[in-house]
């Protein structure tokens, strides 16, 4: 599954993206500035 994580560059988002990738998902971290 392709997933975009808003706020993915923060502490929780980084861990979430890594966990999703380990589960076989295509996760991308997005950051709104």
TrEMBL record:
Q: Signal peptide location in the record?
A: none
Source domain of life is Bacteria
Query: Domain NAD-dependent epimerase/dehydratase spans what residues?
Result: 3-29
From the Swiss-Prot or TrEMBL record, give the protein name: NAD-dependent epimerase/dehydratase family protein
Q: Whose protein is this, by species? A: Paenibacillus zeirhizosphaerae
Q: What is the lineage of its organism?
A: Bacteria, Bacillati, Bacillota, Bacilli, Bacillales
